[in-house]
Amino acid sequence: MTVNATLLEITDRIIDRSGPSRSAYLDRMRAAEGKGPSRAHLSCSGQAHAYAAAGEDQETLATGTGGNLGIVTAYNDMLSAHQPFETYPDVLRKAARSVGGTAQVAGGVPAMCDGVTQGEAGMELSLFSRDVIAMAAGVALSHNTFDAAVFLGVCDKIVPGLVIGAQVFGHLPAVFLPAGPMTSGLANDDKAMVRQKFAAGECGRDELMKAEMAAYHGPGTCTFYGTANTNQMLMEFMGLHLPGSSFVTPNTGMREALTAEGAKRALSLSALGNNYTPVCDILDEKAFVNGMVGLMATGGSTNLLIHLVAMARAGGIILTPEDFSEVSDLVPLLARVYPNGLADVNHFHAAGGLGYLIGELLGGGLLHPDTKTVAGEGLENYTQEPFLQDGELTWRPGTKESLNTKIVSPLTEPFQKTGGLKRLSGSLGTGVIKVSAVKPEFHVIEAPARVFHTQEDAKAAFKAGELTDDVIVVVRFQGPKANGMPELHSLTPMLAILQGRGQKVALVTDGRMSGASGKVPAAIHVCPEAVDGGPIAQVRDGDMLRVDAVAGTLENLAPDAADRPLATADLSGGHAGTGRELFVPFRTAVGAADDGACVFGW
């Protein structure tokens, strides 16, 4: 397959830029590889401690030659997407035994739900939880008793954190095992309409609660295409899932078979056998470029513009906002999944899903075909889909035609000629906008600013009837250093109502929006952030701002804006309570959103 020349240029530039840091990382991984199987180097006392509670696996661990699989789990039963992981360890242990190995839960990592914390103080811990998860995964694997690892995680910060942790132990093979999406409930568009009615005072909380419970009704990920499901897409495009496994629903025979196969596959890739494939060799520059292509082709979550940068840096690979922008200009939009359409991820999967899209992009030269994956050499493996035949798991070629062209389109007839994300730059700094769900008539918004320092103040102004004209709502002091860069998704119903009234409306913020944000143009991740002296701190009420997703510009048109003093805000009230006092070192050490908003000094 011939790879597009521009994609090759982007990749070569990333390889060249990352040379020193990537080489240093790989040197560390090769040194770890050279030490051989980990538990063989432990003292007898150390091994006895590690095997004391292993039951029937004790003897195999102490005297056998089979691999030991470390399970890093994000299980809790408060997250619907993670509740199915409760039963995975037993499935994984049985699968490991069937191939002469063993499996142990190495450790757990926290997993919070952004849907629960939207608009609440806990959301200010959300982004930082990614780096906590990475550290917790590192602690879990630090006992050095494992020959391979599987990672159980799905949602927003969990998968990026686990990928960072996996790369720190990059000399080990790693397979990521999802739980799959919940079955379809109340349509996402209908749910959004009820939310808007409630925000406008047109229905009561009882009707809102009924709609929400009908939408979120069982185990599995939320079915819209937000950050959680974007994570699952990336794990296939980057070769860490088994092919076709991302969107298989929980508690089915296929889901259990894929889970068991994940354990066997991880052990088969260990240094004890002849097919050694450590995660450091899978997650190279080409794999990250493939991830960016998948992000643009599917109109995925803006959160991954932060997470992919952090994930890449953990492996010594340096991505920049310009890389994402150039990939977005090159790759067309091939998926329409809510909020970028009416379909949910179950409909998307049934229409051909990731296997079909990967095949289309490979055929058009828009993916690197020669990457290593947990399924073997080459991304072509991910055009296949799993089947159960006489109770045995097998893979067959997937569809080569879209089964619903309103949901997934062929490369020759894309929904948009460019990807779903656009970089912005100008006198207000740099930022990003998700345009895949924004109508073309809203791609350029020029309107007076109304400035707020909290989302609560913005909502209060709306409820007081103050936002009746065209407006660009500016919510600043929401960056990673200020308060952990919370998502501001609770503003979405308010902004959608203003837009529905015929007003020109947009959002500008140094914070984040939900991965499912869509119809209202939002310039987010603005850098430098206000607390760092960014120009967003110089905006005043009434300044004419311009958000231009066509030209890729973000401007304050007020002629004297650059000469003004910087606004300040008293942030102390938001630095304690709901665990926020524990994260003072994070707010102090965190880097800019452009650099992955990471606390690690890569």
TrEMBL record:
Annotated ranges, domain Dihydroxy-acid/6-phosphogluconate dehydratase N-terminal: 69-380
Species annotation: Sulfitobacter noctilucicola
Name under which the protein is recorded: Phosphogluconate dehydratase
Function: Catalyzes the dehydration of 6-phospho-D-gluconate to 2-dehydro-3-deoxy-6-phospho-D-gluconate.
Molecular function as annotated in GO: 4 iron, 4 sulfur cluster binding; metal ion binding; phosphogluconate dehydratase activity
Range of residues in the leader sequence: none
Pfam families, per database record: ILV_EDD_C, ILVD_EDD_N
UniProtKB keywords: 4Fe-4S, Carbohydrate metabolism, Gluconate utilization, Iron, Iron-sulfur, Lyase, Metal-binding
EC number, as in UniProt: 4.2.1.12
Catalytic reaction equation(s): 6-phospho-D-gluconate = 2-dehydro-3-deoxy-6-phospho-D-gluconate + H2O
Family: Belongs to the IlvD/Edd family.
